Amino acid sequence: MTAKPLITLKGVNKYYGDYHALRDIDLTINEGEFFSLLGPSGCGKTTLLRTIAGFEEVSSGVLMISDTDMSGVPANQRPTNMVFQSYAIFPHLSVAENVGFGLRKSAMSKAEKATAVEDALQMVGLAGYGARAAHALSGGQRQRVALARALILKPKVLLLDEPLSALDRKMREQMQVELIKLQRDVGITFILVTHDQEEALVMSDRIAVMFEGEIGQLGDPEDLYRRPNSKRVADFIGLMNFLPARVADDVSEEVAAKPAKPLGLIDRLKQPFAPVSGPKALPEYKLGVEVQVPGLGRAIVPTSQVPKGLRQAECIVGIRPETLSLLFAGEKTDKQTVDATIDEVVYYGDMTYYDVRIEGIAEPIRLAMKNLIGRPVLEVGVTTKVIWDERSLVVLAPE
Amino acid sequence: MKRPRLAMSERRRAALLLSPPFLYAVLLLALPLFAIVLFSFWTQDFMTIDRTATLDNYREVFATEKWVPGAGLWENLQTIGNTIYLTLLGRSLYVSLFVTAVTVILAFPVAYFISFHVSPSRKSLWLFLITIPFWTSYLIRVFLWKVILGYNGVVNASLINIGLIDEPLTFILYNINAVIITLAHAFAPFAILPIFVALEKIDRSLLEASQDLGETRLRTFFRVTLPLAMPGVVAAVLIVFIPTIGDYVTPALMGGAGGQLIANMIQTQFLALNNAPLGAALALTAMVSVTIIALVFIWLNRKWLRART
Amino acid sequence: MKLRVYAIAYLIFLYAPIVLLPLFAFNDGTVIAFPLQGFSTQWFSELATTTALHTAVKNSLIIASLTAIFSTILGVCAARAGAMAHFPGKRGILGFVMLPLVLPEIIVAVSLLIVLRQILGLDLSNWSIIAAHVLICTPFSIAILNGAFQNIDPSLEEAALDLGESRWSAFRLVILPLVTPGIISSLLISFTISLDEFIIAFFLTGSNPTMPVYIWGLLRFPASIPVVMALGTILVALSILLLTLAEIARRRGLARTGTKDTGGFL
Fold it and tell me: Searching chain C, which residue's CA lies closest to the CA of residue B39?
């Protein structure tokens, strides 16, 4: 599917008095996309959502939906509908009256409206709940009513303001899956506001991470997780160790070529004229940027993982806990290792988090190990080796 | 500076909505209050108002004799204080303070009981029962106290029937005591409700925390409950103290000759003697005294609460 | 339970005078004193034939109804504004509007008397009483309606706007139904306060006395006191009826929005 822009923001600013809530937001959200606005509280994500909904006017800049400038278009005339954080279910109306609320002025007949309401309830798994009193519903049911009420109007965009934050963990995980399915079924753009990075990673096609009114990084979940562009993004999404380091220069280093393997019988049949010793191995080159990480050593990091222009300079190196591992007794590795002492053990059942001390690094490093069968949980004070992989290093500009 | 348009327009709508009640209060409260102040500096001779500014009314309120310009300051100052108006004002303040103290002290345990010992489902029933008498005709309620305390009233009749007394008691009607009892009754719900609201707001785990930290129930009450309930007590004090000063019905019906208060005098000046300027001066004097006492009370309470923290 | 005993004793103290009302209203004697003389309904029949009283009651009903309507309208404005966006001076203005709650009524009475009679030179009428009663009832309306308006989730109105309604229709379809119980109890309580108010009415009453002013007149004549008792009995019964209605309205409002009952009107 080719991405077709639906919502475009150009240089959008929003002030509340002296408070600068949105700073020069440039953003394009596509048709049919599940888009998330992720960030800590007060980062402007809800303001941005409410700006798109029409509850807030932009102070400067342009907001377009379907190529139409939205300035001066009130919320009740925009092709957007919203699921509120509190769900905002009208407590004095029944479920069906809530869902059919937006159809009041539509040209549909009474029977058509009733069918539409029943269809919408069916879609969110509440078929037959129409006659219930709204205030007697559970949290999950209220959320479904809110969804049905917004979707019945067939908006171009569904806006979801922290819709899962009021639910307990189990319900939340279930609703995440249901929301993804629902979005695929109806095929319209969903914009989700959340402070829960896991939720954003699970549900979204693309995510904008916001800090202090700005978009810190925009990308798909894997981009954000693997290639955060700043320490604050890396820190906000998942866990990451940060080590002070130094970027040297671009290098292209010859790696010892693999020794030539003698040819087998089938190879022989295929290549009857090849020399007996097999093809001469070509030298391999490692292209990348050299980074010196005190405590770990020298690493060649893929050029794409190092900010442009950051050469011969101090930097921060980020390492995700799951990209490090401990060398257990009896295991071997051909990767780089470094000596470490276990400082803290946090047992999670499926995983164990270890904080390890490595000489030359001030703070303990956290790493995560799967608790495989036969693999012991090491104790505090044990000395061991930490395996690290230079490909997993994320080089970030110092703050 | 750029300002958000919608937030601004909601502010404007809020301001617009608030303007009718505000204008009403300005027209019917602020302006009339200002008029009283003006009037208190004027004089009236039967039907004609003399609009030259003068302190005569206040001199009459505060001094037994007219200010003698020739005499020295000290001679003039000596005449201050001993007027019928100040006697009435003093009595009024005494009655109001006494009524306030009695009402609030009697009301506190009731509010405490409803908040802490009545099950949540029955709280509104209790509050309902307490508010009902308040909504029944004030005049008739006051009059009924006369029936209770009167010469052939309920109290005397029962006491004679039991044989405790031979002659009806006379000291319970037509004096200040009767005024105090009646007012304490009339303002009871005013005292209970604010205290109850303050008590309801107290997080119950605070009390458990205090006991957990080794305090007895009684000490917990004085160290935790009472300080936290203080805003309600202050509200109760003000809401009883301030209006009682303006009541002339109870003293007129219950007070007898020795139980008349400043409000009766204000009423007399306005309605019987047709001396609005003097009445205005009296009303202002009373209001200012009440306000000063109320402010001192609030200040003392703040100081007390701050001293504890 | 010592506290419970005390609380019940307190309730008895509160109800003591009111309990006497029906006793003397049905008492076959002209003197309001014990012992009782026997059962009679003559004071009630006398009520029915006293035309001066009927005029006073009619006056009071008109005044109380109009007061209830006006003060509730002002109360809705203030309480709605109170639940909306903050603007500079809002707290001060709200506090000022609530001021009559802690102002001695005699001050309200004399200040309005001065303005109406001496400054504007108007004749006192029912309107002067209504004006004053609206002033003192509005704070009560605001207090009641504040509860109603502040219980409403602000996103309900936004949801209605989001679903295509205008500001006005969002108010009509969502806010108004939710605050209706508050409005009813505000109407009833303002009505009750105005109906019973004497201190101000006595100053501002024109040629037609209100019911409390009429009762005040009767209290000076011992012979008419049994009639007052009968009238009082009816008034108490009526007050209890109105209050019960107000309470039912309030509870229905809570049930409707599914909010917890925190008790009380004020």
Answer: C114
Domain locations in chain A as residue ranges: 5-236, 241-396
- Is the Cβ of A16 closer than 8 Å to some Cβ of chain C? no
CA distances from A128 to A118, A123, A132, B72 (A): 8, 12, 9, 95
3-state secondary structure (DSSP) of residue B247: coil
Q: Is residue B62 part of a domain?
A: no
Q: Inform me whether the C-beta atom of residue C254 falls under 8 Å from chain B C-beta atoms.
A: no
Overall number of domains in chain B: 1
Please tell me the distance from the alpha carbon of residue C234 to that of residue A5, in angstroms, as a whole number.
73
* pLDDT in the model for residue B7: 46
Q: Is A101 on the interface with C (CB under 8 A)?
A: yes
Give which of C163, C167, C180 to mutate to test A binding, by max A Cβ within 10 Å.
C163
Please report, for the domain that includes residue B250, its CATH number. 1.10.3720.10
The C-alpha atoms of residue A52 and residue A12 are separated, in whole angstroms, by 11
User: What pairs with residue B49 in β-bridges?
Assistant: B44
Residue A283 pLDDT: 61
Hey, is B183 helix, strand or coil?
helix
| Domain, as residue range, for B263 | 84-308
Q: How many domains in chain C?
A: 1
Interface of C with B in 155-214 (CB under 8 A): 192, 196, 198-199, 202-203, 212
Spatial strand order of the sheet with A60-65 comes to A19-30, A5-16, A60-65, A68-69
Q: What is the pLDDT of residue A176?
A: 93
Residue C97 belongs to some domain of the structure? no
Q: Residue C196 falls within a domain, yes or no? A: yes
Nearest-CA distance B98 → chain C (Å): 17
Please check whether residue C40 is in contact with residue C102, taking contact to mean a CB–CB distance below 8 angstroms. no
Q: Which CATH class is domain A241-396?
A: mainly beta
Q: pLDDT band at A257, cuts 50/70/90?
A: low
Please state, in angstroms and as integers, the Cα–Cα distance from residue A72 to each residue in A63, A155, A174, A213, following that order.
Answer: 11, 19, 38, 22
The 8-class DSSP code of residue C40 comes to: -
Residue C57 counted as domain residue: no
Which chain A residues have a beta carbon less than 8 Å from that of B3?
15, 17, 59
Six-digit token pair at B241? 């103290």
What are the phi and psi torsion angles at A266 (to 5°)? -65, -40
- Quote the strand ranges of chain B, DSSP E: 43-45, 48-50
Three-state DSSP at A398 gives: coil
The per-residue pLDDT for range B96-148, each reduced to its tens digit, is 999 999 999 999 999 999 998 888 888 888 888 888 887 778 888 888 888 88
Q: What is the CATH number of the domain that holds C183?
A: 1.10.3720.10
B238 vs C254 pLDDT, higher one:
B238
- Encode pLDDT of A278-325 as tens digits: 555 566 667 788 899 998 888 888 887 888 888 888 999 999 999 999
β-pair type (A19-30, A34-38): unpaired
pLDDT category of residue B72 using cuts at 50, 70 and 90: low
Strands A336-347 vs A68-69: parallel, antiparallel or unpaired: unpaired
- B148/C14 touch (CB, cutoff 8 Å), yes or no: no
Quick check: C108 contacting B, CB < 8 Å?
A: yes
- Of C154 and A267, the structure prediction assigns the larger pLDDT to C154
What is the domain extent for residue C220?
103-257
As beta bridge partners, residue A50 has none
How many CB atoms are located within 10 Å of the residue A249 CB?
9
Asked whether A148 and A126 are in contact (CB, 8 A), the reply is yes
Q: Residue B262: pLDDT band by 50, 70, 90 thresholds?
A: confident
Residue C264 lies in a domain: no
Q: What are phi and psi of A80, to 5 degrees?
A: -125, 150
Testing the interface with B: which of C23, C111, C129 to mutate, by most B Cβ within 10 A?
C111
The CATH number that domain A5-236 falls under is 3.40.50.300
